[in-house]
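Quick start: what a row looks like.
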Amino acid sequence: MNRPELMAIVIAILVLLLLLMALGWRARLRRQAGIAKPLDAPAQLGAAIGIFSGKYVATTSAGEPLNRIAVHGLGFRGNVAVTVAENGVLVHIDGTDDKWIPRADLRDLRKATWTIDRVVEQDGLELLEWSLGDRIVDSYFRFDDWASFEFAVDSLLARKAA
């Protein structure tokens, strides 16, 4: 075979792989169509405890860090601004609608080292576990000021328990 024929074969294989990736993503969106949409922010968030900036990494099914939730603007990484208020947590991921997590839906806050397509230093991610409809999910963040974020969310979790 000469060079142009080999190049055509390589390009055809690459196009096939891209097509298969797109079909796989569409199949994931179809399978997850029944997942509840995150709530819209209420008119009153309550007193703000803190506003935190950083990176949104992913949302996965709880305990399954390789099972990405792809629907409702949760499928892609991006810059994030998170407002922790007395009534819950407002998540604003650039390019998507705001997502509201009421205090009653918060379940836990832990550290993580990895999730789908992201590995960082030991305990470099914040894992926020919450209820999305009837499903428990884990959202992963990387904040500029992680200690203050932990303090703010821990105060919400303590109020929920009381």
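That is the whole record. Helices lie at 3-31, 146-161. The longest helix spans residues 3-31.
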